[in-house]
C-alpha cells in the first residue's frame, strides 16, 4: 500500500486500487502507471490451505484452468495459448533483470518438449555462511546442472527462478497429481518438504525436459546464520534424496516417456546418490588418516578420538531438541575447521613424498586444476573460486554433521515439528514448565530476591497500557456484537447486526481522531428498515468475512466484486483441493509416530552402512602390508619414505601400497568429476554458440522508421496468430505434437484429451478442473 500511495506516483494522479472479498480471503488489484494490472491474492488460512505447494496449486488452476480452459476459444486456440503461455516462478527475496527472462523464453521457444527452464542462481547476503554458499552454488551450477543438462535433464527446477510452460503443467499426471494430499510418512517428506523438486520429477516422468540457461542470472538471499542454513538444508536434503530415488525406482517409465533420459544417465544418477549417502563415511576416513599423517599418531587412537564427537552428535539428534543439536554442530564445525588445516598440511606432505604420480596426489591435483579451469571459463564468476577456502574448511561440517542432522531429523516437517506434535498431544506443557520449576525450587520467583530484580527474564511479561486499552475496547465491541448475534436469526436481526458493524467502525474512526469517511463493510441498502428482506444470515456471514477491508489504511481503496463465474470457480476449487486440513491431536500423533518410524528405519540403515564402510577402510589400512595393491607408475620410479629405525627421510624404489577399497573410492569420485567436467565444457560451448547467435540476430535488426508497422497491421497479424485455420496449416489438424518416445499425434495433446473426456462423460462444462 505504501508503494502505491499517491506520493510515489510520478503522474500525481490517484492510483486505481480495488479490494474484493473472495472465497480464499481477499484480493487487491492495483493499476500501475503503464497500465499493467497487479493482482495481490490475500490468503486466509482458515479458508484455504496456506503452504507453498497449495499456493502453487491455487494460482496454477486459476491461470491454467479458469483463464485458459474455461475461455471461449476453440480447442485449437486454447492449445496454442497453452503452448505459448509461461509461468515465472520466483521467490519474494529474489532479484532478476528482464534480460534473464528473455533468455529463458528464447530457450523455451527452441524446443517444444522443454517444459521448464531455470537460470543461474547467485546467493547474496553477508557473512561466512554466504561465502560458503557462493562457492557451493557455483560448483553446483558449473558441474552438476551443466552435466545434467547435457547428458540428460536437470532434475530440479528451483522455485526461486524458473519458467514453466503452461501446457506442460496441464499434462497428465502433473498438475492433478500435484494436488495429492500427503497421508503416508514418505509423502510428507517428498511432497511438502521440497515441492519444487517433486514438481520437476513429475514433469520428467511425463516426458518433458528441464533445461539450464547459464546466462539467465538471478539473485536470491541466502541464509546468513548457521542455524538458518542447517534448517534450510534439513528440508532440502531429504526431499532431494526421496525424489531422486523415486525417479530411479521408476526409471523404466522415465526412459520410455522421456527421450532425454537414458539408462546410462540413470546409472550416473545412481553413482551421485550413492556418494551422497556414503559421503559421511568417506569424509570421516579422510579426516582420520589425514590426522594420522599430520600428527604421527596411531590410527586406532585417532579413529576413536574422531568417532566420539560424531557418536555424541548422533545421540543428541535422536534425543535432544534442535537447538541443542545445532549448538553441538556449531562447536564441532569450528573445531574441525582447525583440523582441516592439518588435513591440508598432511595432503601436501603426501604429495611431496609420494610425488604427483601416486593415486591420492593425482586425484587432489586433478580436482584443484579442474576447479581452477572451471573458474577460468566462467570469467564473470571467477571471484567465487576465492571462497573455496571457506568451503574446504567447512567440509566436515557440511558433509558429516549436516548430513547426519538432515537424516536424523527426517521426521521434522514444517507443519509439525517435534515441539508442535508435543503440544498437540499434551506433552509440551510439562516441558514448558521445567524452567519454572527450577526457578521456583531456588526461590528466584520471589520479588524480594536479588536475582529476580537483576534478571528481567525471570519476570512475567507485562503488557503495555496502550495494548491493554486497545484490547479492552475490542472486547467491549465484540461483546456488543455477540449480544446482537444471539438474537433470533430473522431478517431484522441480520439488519441490526450489519448496522452494528458499521456503528463499531464509525466509533473506531472517531477514537482515531479521523473524519468519518463512511465506507460500509458491504454495499447494502439499509435505508428501508421496514423491508430488509435482502438481509439473511448468509449476508451477515459474507459481511463478517469482509471485516478486513475496513482497516484504516485500506479506506483509500475502492470496493469490487468478483464475477459470478470466478466465484463459482473458487468455491469448487477450494471444496475439491484446497479446503483446510483439520486434524485431531490423535491424528497428528499417529503421523508423528509414522514419521519417526520412517526416520528410524532410514537413519539406522544409512548409519550402519557408513559405519561398515569406515570399518572396512580402517581394517584394510591396518593390514596394508598384506591387503594392498602394489603400484609402480613407471620403471625406475622413486619416492621419499621415512626410515622407521633412523627417523630420517630417504629415497626408495619400493612400490606404492594402495588398499583396493581406497583405490575404488578414488576412481569412483574421479569418474563423477570427469563426467561433470565434460558436461560443463559442452554446456559452455553451447552457451557460447547461443550468445553469438543472439549477437548476429541483433545486428540484423534495423531500427528504421520504414520498418515500423501500423497499428492495423499489428492487429491483423495478431488475429492471424490465433486463427485456428492458420494453426492447423502450420501444425497439422492433430494440434500440438511433442517429440518423444511415447505415442505421437494427439495422445500428448492436453486440451484435446480434456475435450474428449468432457464429451465422453457428457457433463457440463467445468469451471476449475484441468485434468
From TrEMBL:
Q: Which InterPro entries match?
A: Chitin_synth (IPR004835), Nucleotide-diphossugar_trans (IPR029044)
Q: Which EC numbers characterise this protein's activity in its record?
A: 2.4.1.16
User: Membrane spanning segments where?
Assistant: 265-290, 302-321, 327-348, 360-379, 385-408, 602-620, 661-682
Which Gene3D superfamilies does the UniProt entry name for this protein? Spore Coat Polysaccharide Biosynthesis Protein SpsA, Chain A (3.90.550.10)
Coiled-coil positions: 468-495
Record's subcellular location:
Cell membrane
Which GO terms of the cellular component aspect does the record hold?
plasma membrane
Protein name per UniProt: chitin synthase
Report the source organism: Panagrolaimus superbus
Amino acid at each position: 500500500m505504501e508503494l502505491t500511495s499517491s506520493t510515489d506516483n510520478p503522474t500525481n494522479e490517484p492510483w486505481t486500487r480495488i479490494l474484493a472479498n473472495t472465497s480464499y480471503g481477499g484480493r487487491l488489484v492495483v493499476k500501475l502507471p503503464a497500465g499493467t494490472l497487479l493482482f495481490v491474492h490475500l490468503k486466509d488460512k482458515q479458508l484455504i490451505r496456506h503452504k507453498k505447494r497449495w499456493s502453487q496449486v491455487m494460482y496454477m488452476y486459476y491461470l491454467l484452468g479458469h483463464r485458459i480452459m474455461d475461455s471461449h476459444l476453440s480447442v485449437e486456440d486454447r492449445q496454442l495459448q497453452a503452448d505459448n503461455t509461461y509461468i515465472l516462478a520466483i521467490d519474494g527475496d529474489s532479484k532478476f533483470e528482464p534480460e534473464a527472462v528473455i533468455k529463458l523464453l528464447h530457450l523455451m521457444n527452441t524446443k517444444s518438449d522443454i517444459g521448464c527452464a531455470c537460470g543461474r542462481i547467485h546467493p547474496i547476503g553477508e557473512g561466512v555462511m554466504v561465502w560458503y554458499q557462493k562457492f557451493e552454488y557455483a560448483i553446483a551450477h558449473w558441474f552438476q546442472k551443466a552435466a545434467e543438462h547435457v547428458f540428460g535433464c536437470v532434475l530440479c527446477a528451483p522455485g526461486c527462478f524458473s519458467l514453466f510452460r503452461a501446457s506442460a503443467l496441464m499434462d497428465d499426471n502433473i498438475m492433478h497429481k500435484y494436488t495429492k494430499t500427503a497421508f503416508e510418512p514418505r509423502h510428507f517428506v517428498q511432497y511438502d518438504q521440497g515441492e519444487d523438486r517433486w514438481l520437476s520429477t513429475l514433469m520428467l516422468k511425463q516426458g518433458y525436459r528441464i533445461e539450464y540457461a547459464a546466462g539467465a542470472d538471478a539473485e536470491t538471499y541466502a541464509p546468513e546464520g548457521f542455524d538458518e542454513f542447517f534448517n534450510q538444508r534439513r528440508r532440502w536434503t531429504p526431499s532431494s534424496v526421496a525424489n531422486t530415488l523415486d525417479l530411479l525406482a521408476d526409471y523404466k517409465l522415465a526412459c520410455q516417456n522421456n527421450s532425454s533420459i537414458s539408462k546410462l544417465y540413470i546409472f550416473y544418477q545412481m553413482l551421485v546418490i550413492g556418494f551422497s549417502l556414503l559421503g559421511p563415511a568417506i569424509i570421516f576416513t579422510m579426516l582420520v588418516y589425514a590426522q594420522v599423517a599430520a600428527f604421527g599418531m596411531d590410527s586406532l587412537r585417532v579413529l576413536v578420538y574422531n568417532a566420539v564427537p560424531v557418536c555424541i552428535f548422533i545421540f543428541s539428534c535422536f534425543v535432544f531438541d534442535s537447538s541443542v543439536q545445532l549448538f553441538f554442530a556449531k562447536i564441532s564445525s569450528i573445531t574441525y575447521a582447525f583440523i582441516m588445516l592439518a588435513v591440508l598440511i598432511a595432503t601436501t606432505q603426501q604429495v611431496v613424498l609420494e610425488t604427483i604420480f601416486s593415486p591420492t596426489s593425482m586425484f587432489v591435483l586433478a580436482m584443484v586444476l579442474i576447479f581452477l579451469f572451471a573458474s577460468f571459463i566462467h570469467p564473470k564468476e571467477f571471484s567465487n573460486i576465492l571462497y573455496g577456502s571457506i568451503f574446504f574448511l567447512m567440509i566436515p561440517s557440511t558433509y558429516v554433521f549436516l548430513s547426519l542432522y538432515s537424516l536424523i531429523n527426517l521426521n521434522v516437517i514444517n507443519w509439525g515439528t517435534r515441539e508442535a506434535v508435543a503440544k498437540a498431544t499434551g506433552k509440551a506443557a510439562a516441558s514448558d514448565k521445567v524452567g519454572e520449576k527450577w526457578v521456583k525450587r531456588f526461590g528466584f520467583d520471589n520479588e524480594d530476591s536479588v536475582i529476580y530484580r537483576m534478571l528481567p527474564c525471570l519476570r512475567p511479561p507485562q503488557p503495555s497500557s496502550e495494548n491493554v486499552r486497545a484490547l479492552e475496547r475490542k472486547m467491549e465491541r465484540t461483546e456488543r456484537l455477540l449480544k446482537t448475534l444471539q438474537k433470533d436469526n430473522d431478517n431484522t436481526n441480520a439488519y441490526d447486526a450489519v448496522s452494528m458493524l458499521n456503528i463499531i467502525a464509525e466509533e473506531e474512526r472517531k477514537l482515531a481522531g479521523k473524519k468519518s469517511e463512511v465506507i460500509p463493510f458491504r454495499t447494502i441498502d439499509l435505508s428501508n428498515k421496514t423491508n430488509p428482506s435482502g438481509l439473511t444470515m448468509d449476508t451477515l456471514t459474507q459481511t463478517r468475512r469482509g471485516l478486513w477491508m475496513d482497516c484504516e489504511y485500506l479506506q483509500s481503496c475502492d470496493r469490487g466484486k468478483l464475477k459470478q463465474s470466478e466465484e463459482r470457480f473458487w468455491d469448487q476449487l477450494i471444496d475439491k483441493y484446497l479446503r483446510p486440513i483439520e486434524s485431531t491431536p490423535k491424528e497428528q500423533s499417529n503421523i508423528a509416530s509414522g514419521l519417526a518410524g520412517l526416520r528410524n528405519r532410514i537413519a539406522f540403515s544409512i548409519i550402519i552402512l557408513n559405519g561398515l564402510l569406515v570399518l572396512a577402510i580402517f581394517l584394510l589400512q591396518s593390514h596394508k602390508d598384506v591387503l594392498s595393491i602394489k603400484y609402480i607408475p613407471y620403471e625406475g620410479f622413486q619416492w621419499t619414505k621415512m626410515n622407521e629405525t633412523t627417523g630420517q627421510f630417504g629415497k626408495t624404489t619400493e612400490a606404492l601400497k594402495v588398499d583396493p577399497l581406497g583405490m575404488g573410492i578414488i576412481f569412483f569420485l574421479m569418474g563423477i568429476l570427469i563426467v561433470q567436467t565434460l558436461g560443463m565444457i559442452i554446456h559452455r560451448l553451447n552457451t557460447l554458440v547461443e550468445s553469438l547467435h543472439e549477437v548476429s540476430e541483433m545486428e540484423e535488426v534495423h531500427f528504421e522508421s520504414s520498418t515500423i508497422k501500423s497499428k492495423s497491421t499489428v492487429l491483423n497479424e495478431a488475429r492471424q496468430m490465433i486463427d485456428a485455420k492458420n494453426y492447423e496449416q502450420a501444425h497439422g489438424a492433430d494440434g500440438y505434437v511433442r517429440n518423444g518416445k511415447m505415442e505421437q499425434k494427439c495422445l500428448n495433446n492436453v486440451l484435446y484429451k480434456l475435450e474428449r473426456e468432457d464429451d465422453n462423460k457428457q457433463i457440463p462444462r467445468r469451471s476449475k478442473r484441468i485434468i
